[in-house]
Each structure stands twice: as structure tokens, then as C-alpha cells.
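Input/output pair, single chain:
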Amino acid sequence: QVQLQESGPGLVKPSQTVSLTCAVSEGSITTKYYWWSWIRQPPGKGLEWMGFIDYSGYIYFSPSLKSRTSISRDTSKNQITLQLSFVTPEDTAVYYCAGHRWDGTTKTDYWGQGTQVTVSS
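Output:
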């Protein structure tokens, strides 16, 4: 079963860029019909989908975050990276990496445990 592990700096200052990494194991990020999302959950709020990169490298961002978000991949390390620039305290959240697969009839989701990002001076 695909496993995902997020990692990041934990605490960042306002206006900085935060970079988060999702290490994928027991599966390749280039396997057909998989896509890999970043999703966050601010304290006391619901889940917010941020964007995804698929097995071919196609990337799509949430319109509300597009101007500040970058997603990339390192196929040699089997990792997905999220960068969020010009962070504010409103970006404080648990950030999750998720993998998804569609086989034509069934969608399967895999989630990491999440990594806390706190934006504070």
C-alpha cells in the first residue's frame, strides 16, 4: 500500500516561503493514473485542497492559492514538494499530502499523517 510522509520546517515567519516535502513509498509517483495532492486544515476549520501534480507531471492549483503556490516533483527521490510563498498567520495549518488512484471504476485515496506549519513572528 502506498505510504506518504510529509516533512517541513514547523515554524516560519510571516512573508517567508515555506517548503514541504512528501516522501512516497511502496509506489512510484510516476505510476499511471495516480495524482498527488496537497491539502491543508487550519485550526478549527475544514479541509482546503491546494493543488495536485499527476503521474505525467501535469499540475493544477486551487485558484485562490495559485499566485502563491508551487508544486514540483523529484522522480529520483520519489518526492513531491509544495512551496507556499508570502505566508501569513492565516496559512497556519496541518498540511497533508495525499495520493489518489482511479482505475476506471474506483477511486482509492492514501493520506499522510500531516505536518504542522505555524506562521508566527
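DSSP finds no helices and eleven strands in the chain. The CA atoms of residues 50 and 62 lie 5 Å apart.
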